[in-house]
Amino acid sequence: MTNGIRFACSVLLAAAVAANGVASAAEDNAIVAESLRAAFHSGAADTGSDEANAGLDAIRDIYVVRDFKPIWVRDNGPKTKARALLGELKISGVHGLSPEFYHASEIEALMGSPAPDDLARLDMLLSGAAVDFGGDLANGRLGPDTAPSENAVPPIPLAPADYVAAAEAAENLRDFAGAMLSEDYRYVRLIAKLGEFSRIEASGRWPAIDAGGAAIAAGAEDARMRDIRRLLALAGDLPIALMDGSAVHDEKTVQAVRSFQTRHGLDPTGTIDGATLAAMAVPISTRIRQIKVNLERRRWQNRDLGEDNIYINLADANVKIVHGGRPELFVELLNAPDLALLPTFFGEITGVEVRPSAASPLALTVRSPFVERIAGEGGERTIAVSDLSALLAELVAARAPAGTATDALLSANAPATVAFETPLPLFVTFVTAWANRDGTVHFRGDGSGRDAVVARLLQLD
Question: Which residues are in the L,D-transpeptidase scaffold domain (predicted)?
């Protein structure tokens, strides 16, 4: 993606240089060009973007090579491309972002002005919006500089001018936005769920469930079941045809409750107990907020993890080994509470550590800023997992030098390290909402309050 954007930038600059040779004052953007030239020469040029302004010299170079001809407007008003970019900014809410992050109201107000200075201001604001919107989609709005306790993933290195050049060169601004998006299918699925939940909220049909009261066992009759049926149907656990029915917790609703419990990380008993009622009582507005928070976390993951990797979700206490692009093994994270405050980060599993005197004699060595090993027991800078033997066997067979055997490593008398021929990517994150291939959306609790931190920084409250 980075190379493609840099190529687009090069193409734009080359085309601008060629066009500049035949440009004349008769063109219909020469008047605004003079306003832009004056703004840059006086030091008054302002894109509305802190990031773009920090790289203003490079932005200026794009305008210089065009002889300050505007990118987004003409002397008689905005180009079609300007309206297209504004359109993308106005629907940025589909990503859980806000149009006002990108000065959409001011941009829209300037769209109808004939004044050259206003059109110059509009051109600069659109360039700044391309930088901020593109960067937010590519790396997330909250980078390591703004939220180091949540996100420790280095951003994709794109200069502000690259975003402007890529947006200007794009045939379609939807293509520009798409090029910046996470290619992770889980991001796209979660966007779909955000739209679905937003429509349900707008309909006013999501019921309010009282978290108090006695549990509802299978076969029991309870007046609350009518609202619970509606919730289960809207959430996708119960067929819509059964949404309005009796107050009996019948076989169909028992199966639906089990589905609901599974999606919320609860024991799927089918009984509507206190924990299940508490999950049902969460307002849909809170779930929408949770989805938006986790879309941001998915943007931090805008990297190719490769066909083989280990993916750890601290919020779900789940460790997944992926081989050939498909999950091959799931094991439990045993010390999730001790690791609950780790930020999202990338690392590498580099080999196997032999520790004859340790409670767990074998461990996986990790290269990362926060974790040193994965073992059968926890400790400082150590991730503890269940069924370490299965995980080791899988990785030793795939990554260790030929002839390496787990049994031989276990019988070693002295500490040693066996390096993998190729390190295995490791990704550690904290995700409390995700959508599966089957269309189900899953939620997890957040006892450490991390969702609230991200929501505040995203100005969701």
Answer: 58-194
The arithmetic mean of pLDDT across residues 417-444, rounded, is 94
Please give the structure tokens belonging to residue 421: 């021929």
Q: Which of 35, 197, 202 is nearest to 114 (CA)?
A: 35
Q: Work out the number of other CB atoms within 10 angstroms of the CB of residue 72.
A: 27
What average pLDDT does range 30-56 have in this prediction? 94
Give one word for 236, left, alpha or beta, with left for phi > 0 and alpha for psi -120 to 50: left
d(CA 315, CA 323): 22
Whether the per-residue pLDDT at 347 is higher than 90: the answer is yes
Least confident piece of the model among 37-41, 118-122, 128-132, 401-405: 401-405
3-state secondary structure 168-237: HHCCCHHHHHHHHCCCCHHHHHHHHHHHHHHHHHHHCCCCCCCCCCCCECCCCECCCHHHHHHHHHHCCC
Q: Which of 7-21, 305-319, 334-348 has the lowest mean pLDDT?
A: 7-21
pLDDT at 183: 61
Stretch(es) of the chain classified as CATH 1.10.101.10: 207-282
pLDDT (mean) for 220-244? 96
CA 129 to mean position of chain CA atoms: 20
Residue 146 CB neighbour total at 10 angstroms:
11
Which superfamily is assigned to 207-282 in CATH? PGBD-like superfamily/PGBD (1.10.101.10)
Do 10 and 62 touch, CB atoms closer than 8 A? Answer: no
User: Whole-angstrom Cα distance, residue 61 to residue 159?
Assistant: 13
CA of 287: how far to CAs of 118, 265, 327, in Å?
41, 15, 27
Nearest to 437, CA basis, from 234, 61, 260, 186: 186
- Chain region(s) in the chain for CATH 2.40.440.10: 303-430
